[in-house]
Amino acid sequence: MADSYDLVVIGGGPGGYTAAIRAAQLKMKVACIEKRPNKAFGGTCLNVGCIPSKALLDSSEMYEATLHKLARHGIRVGSVALDLATMLARKDKVVSELTGGVGYLFKKYGVTPHYGTGKLLGGGKVEETAVDGAKTVLETKNILLATGSESTELPFLKFDGKFVVSSTEALTFQSVPKHLIVVGGGYIGLELGSVWKRLGSKVTVLEFLPRILSISDGEISMEVQKLLSKQGMEFHLETKVTGASIKSDQVTVTAQSKDGKELSFTGDRVLVAVGRRPFTAGLGLDEARVKYDPKSGRVEVDEHYKTSAPGIYAIGDLIAGPMLAHKASEEGVVCVEHLAGMKPHVNYDAIPSVIYIWPEVSSVGLTEEQLKEKKIDYKIGKFKFAATGRAKAMDETDGWVKVLTDAKTDRVLGVHILGPRASDLIAECVTIMEYKGSAEDIARCAHSHPTLSEAVGEAARMAWTGMPLNS
Ligand SMILES: Cc1cc2nc3c(=O)[nH]c(=O)nc-3n(C[C@H](O)[C@H](O)[C@H](O)COP(=O)(O)OP(=O)(O)OC[C@H]3O[C@@H](n4cnc5c(N)ncnc54)[C@H](O)[C@@H]3O)c2cc1C
C-alpha cells in the first residue's frame, strides 16, 4: 500500500527542507524527497551554492589579508603558502556538517526523508524513483514543489565540466587556474571570480550589459567595478560572447564588442555565470496540469503559492522573484503555515540581498534607478565608512551607506550598502522597512560606538535632516 502523508515536499533545498520542518512542527505528517545521489539535503544552497562559496570566500579573504593587509597592522609573517587541498577540504567539511544538520532536524521534528526523484502522478500521488530504479508511490493531501534551479547554459558555450564550467565546478577546481574567464558580471561570477583572483588567478569578466551587477543600485555597481579593478580583475562590458574553442588545455572565448569588433580571450578555465533557470525536468508538470511560463520555466502561483492544479503548491527558485535562499525559506514557511490555517505573508519589498565580494554589498528595497522609473520623489542620505572610527580602526574604509527615503514622509524606501560587513549591517534596515519605519527612526536608535553600524545611523540622519553629525 502507498505511504500516505499530509504534505509531500519535492526538493530538499532551503525552500523545501524549511517548509517540511515547519509543517512537521505544525503537526502535519510530512515527507521530503531529494534526488541528490549523496542523500544530502540542503539543495543548491548548502551543497553547491551559498555555503561552499562563502566558505571559499572566507578562506581566500584570509589568504589575501595575510599576503596584503597584515603588514599594515604591524604583523609580519614569514613565507605564506596556499594549501588549496586543505582549503577545499575545509569547505567540504562545512558543507557536510550543515547538510547533516538538516538530517538531524528532520529526525528531531519527524519529517520522513525520501531519497529519490519525485514525479507528479496527479490526484494527490507522487512517484519516487530511487537511485537503484526502485519506485514507490506516496499518497498525500498536499504537494509542495521546491525543486529549485540549475545554471543556465549558453547554446554556443556548453558546459563540459572541465574547461567550460558552471559555478558547481568552479567551487572544486583542484588547482588555481592561471587565467579564469568569467562570462557574466552578476553576483555569482564576481564572488567566484574574487575567490580565484585572491588565490592567484588572472580573472577577466565579460559582460553583455553596459554594467556589472545590473540589478544593483547603479552607483554601487560602478564603484564595485572600480574596486575590483583595483584588486586586479579585468572587465569588458557590452561584450557579447559568441563561442569558444579548446586547444591544448586552453580555451579561447570569442566575443564581439559593442562596435562590432571581433575579440578573443584565452584562458585555462571559463566560468559561465549568466543566470539560473527553474529545474522542472521529469517533474510531471504537464501531466499534473501545473501551469508554468514556457519561456522562463517558472511555475505560476497565486499569493498563497497555489499552482493551477488543486493541492499542488510551489516556492523558491522555481517561481518568480529573486533567486535567494532566504526568499525560498520564507515562502516555504508561509506556504505551509497557510495550509495550517495561519495568515502570514512574505513582504517582497523587504527581502535583502548580499554580494559577498570584498568590500561586501547589501541592499534592500528600491534602487535610485527604480525610484526614478516609478517617478517617486526621494531623498538620499549617504555616509562614507571612511568617516567612521571603526572602519578607520579596521583599515577598511572603502564604500558607503546610502539610505533612500520618500521625500514627503521620510519613510525608508531602500538601503544600499557597499562596505565592510555590509552583509550584517543590512539587517537593521530590513527590520525598519518591515515596520514601514522612517530614516528618523533609524537615526534616533542608538548605534554602539565605535561600530560600522554608525554609518547606517548617520546615512539615515543625513536623509532625515540633510546633515550627518560626524562628517
Ligand atoms: C554559487 C551560488 C552561490 C549562491 N549564493 C547565495 C547566497 O549567498 N545567498 C542566497 O540567498 N542565495 C545564494 N544562492 C542561491 C540559492 O542557492 C538559491 O536561491 C536557493 O538554493 C534556492 O532554494 P530552493 O529550495 O528553491 O532550491 P534548491 O536549493 O535548488 O533546492 C532544490 C532541490 O531540489 C532537488 N530536486 C530537483 N528536482 C527534484 C525532483 N524531481 N525530485 C527530488 N528532488 C529534486 C534538487 O536536487 C535540489 O537539491 C547561490 C547560488 C549559487 C549557485
Helix/strand class: alpha/beta
Number of strands: 22
Rg is 24 Å
Ligand types? flavin-adenine dinucleotide
Number of helices: 13
Q: Based on Cα principal axes, name the global outline.
A: globular
* Strand coverage percent: 25-35%
**Major beta sheet summary:** 7 strands, mixed
List the helices and strands and how they pair.
Elements: E1 3-10, H1 14-25, E2 30-34, H2 43-48, H3 50-68, H4 84-109, E3 112-115, E4 117-122, E5 125-129, E6 135-145, E7 149-151, E8 164-165, H5 167-170, E9 179-183, H6 187-198, E10 202-206, H7 218-230, E11 234-236, E12 240-247, E13 250-256, E14 262-267, E15 269-272, E16 276-278, E17 312-314, H8 325-339, E18 353-355, E19 360-365, H9 368-373, E20 378-384, H10 389-394, E21 400-406, E22 412-419, H11 422-434, H12 439-444, H13 453-465
Parallel strand pairs: 1-2, 1-6, 2-3, 6-17, 8-15, 9-10, 9-15, 10-11
Antiparallel strand pairs: 4-5, 5-6, 7-16, 12-13, 13-14, 18-19, 19-22, 20-21, 21-22
Bound molecules: flavin-adenine dinucleotide.
Flavin-adenine dinucleotide is lined by residues 10-16, 33-36, 43-45, 49-50, 53, 117-118, 146-149, 167, 188, 279, 282-283, 316-318, 323-326, 328.
